[in-house]
Amino acid sequence: MGKQEIITGECNTEVQPAEGYFSEVPGIVSELTRGFLDGRWSSHIEPVPIPSRDEVISIINQAQRILFPGFFTPDILSPASLEYHVGQEMSLFYENLARQVNCAIRHDCLRHDQVCSQCGERSYRIALDFIRSLPSIREQLESDIEATLAGDPAAANADEVIFSYPGLFATFVYRLAHRLVELEVPIIPRIMSEYAYHRTAIDINPGARIGDSFFIDHGAGVVIGATTEIGNRVRLYQGVTLGALSLPRDAGKKLRDKKRHPTIEDDVIIYANAIILGGDTVIGARSIVGGNVWLTQSIGPDTKVILKPAELVYLGNGTKKTEER
After folding, report:
1. What are the CB-based long-range contacts (under 8 Å, 24+) for 84-92?
2. 113: how many CB neighbours lie within 10 A of its CB?
3. What is the reported pTM?
4. CATH label of the domain that carries residue 253
């Protein structure tokens, strides 16, 4: 085999397109443009700005610095500087949130052919109502931290949970987004929840209702649908789905405001990869749902649902052994 030449460095060779190739580009541009302008394809060609995903993520980060002071900032805080720090962050947060809410409601009005009225004033009022909710949101988050420490022996302390637990981060973003849903802010809550999903692989619809002391252990693959109701002191493990039953193709708009996802009462534990579906499905208080269980019907309080032990087959060394687990 002959010696091969090793080529290194940047490619500086100029490549010329075949004759006539560029002549096709204007026609493709025109076809795309017609699709957008005649309404066949979704686009945002409007006189008002849509909320910025980057700015919404910035709002989440600002909320972290406000609600967990000292954890997500390089500044060293002291009791004497705490109020100044929180006040400075809050002022920026208020302005940024009001600006993005304004974009969201103006965009929504235009989408639905409504006439905007006092959008700027309404945006600041919504932002203020949200800020008023921050102490109660922080109280809930403290209960979520305590639930994590109580439910996971591997959790060394609250600092570790705040810094590194994906379940707490997803819950934190959910609690912000859910409050914005309650305040009837469009678009922004879903941007928030999708960002949390990108970070954690935990998908919590901001429309779900979740009580205090909520704990997601490990977390990846958890799905919580929009009309799910979860009580207090509920614990979920990775891969749990609280979803809807299969719907007809044309059912989206008809069932949008209907209860489609299950209700989980207080003190329930749901283990890994369990799937619970349907708006009429209720998991009674203090019940336990085992791993890999599939449920589409209700169970009463104090009930344990588990799969029958699987039959394991061991192969090797010329022998075969069957064992029930």
Report:
1. 89/62, 89/65, 90/66, 90/131, 92/62
2. 6
3. 0.86
4. 2.160.10.10
Q: Which two tokens stand for residue 195?
A: 């960002």
Query: Does residue 228 share a domain with residue 192?
Result: no
CATH code for the domain in which residue 80 is found: 1.10.3130.10
Q: How many domains does the chain have?
A: 2
User: Which residue in 177, 169, 175 sits closest to 148, CA to CA?
Assistant: 169
Question: Which ranges of the chain would DSSP assign to H, the alpha helix?
Answer: 25-37, 53-67, 79-111, 119-151, 158-164, 166-182, 188-200
Residue 181's pLDDT band (cuts 50, 70, 90): very high
User: Residue 320: its pLDDT value, please?
Assistant: 67
Query: Among 166, 200, 234, where does a domain finish?
Result: 200
Q: Encoding tokens for residue 322?
A: 């069957």
Say yes or no: 191 and 237 in one domain.
no
The DSSP result for 127-175, as a single string, is HHHHHHHHHHHHHHHHHHHHHHHHH-TT---HHHHHHH-HHHHHHHHHH
In this model, does residue 65 exceed pLDDT 70?
yes
**Using 50, 70 and 90 to split pLDDT, how confident is the model at 113?**
low
Q: What is the pLDDT of residues 258-304, one digit of tens each?
A: 899 999 999 999 999 999 999 999 999 999 999 999 999 999 999 99
| CB contact set of 288 (below 8 Å; sequence gap of 6+) | 268, 269, 270, 271, 303, 304, 305, 306
Residue among 205, 270, 212 at smallest CA distance from 239: 270
pLDDT of residue 118: 77
| pLDDT for 160 | 96
Pick the more confident residue, 38 or 306.
306
Residue 27 lies in a domain: no
Query: In angstroms, rounded to a whole number, what is the distance separating the alpha carbons of residues 255 and 257?
Result: 6
CA 41 to each of CA 33, 44, 51, 180: distance values in angstroms, whole numbers, following the listed order:
10, 10, 20, 28
Q: Which domain holds residue 173?
A: 47-200
228 and 304 belong to one structural domain: yes
